[in-house]
Amino acid sequence: MIDFVVKEFTELTAVEIYQMLRLRSEVFVVEQNCVYQDIDSKDQKAYHVLGYKNNILIAYARIFDSGDYFQLPSIGRILVQEEERKFKYGYELVAHSIQFIQNNFREKSILISAQTYLLKFYNSLGFIQQGEEYLEDGIPHMKMLRTS
Question: Which structural domains are found in the chain, ordered by start?
């Protein structure tokens, strides 16, 4: 069982910010061996989806409204701690994020920049490939759009 909380940046506690940055670094920098600037001054505009299992942060995503990142609402920094992925929490995380966008932004279209190896995962959640593959921080990505 995973419990989700969504907060604006100003609502996050220092402990929550530390936990989210630590988890993002664990997955995107250490596990994926990708040196990039994770702290990008966009967190202040985002809504932060925190996924807890037994009071431990194991899943995370950040959500942007239209115009704050892309022209459409978007979800990014989507991750589940490596040892928790076998439970398929990524599906719950993305579904919760989609529901948040639909309920709070009254928008059905969502644009993401997905790591290419996850195309089937995002296809199963209603996202469709847009355009050609590109490199982002040295990792192949694909823009994907969900319209319903």
Answer: 3-107 (3.40.630.30)
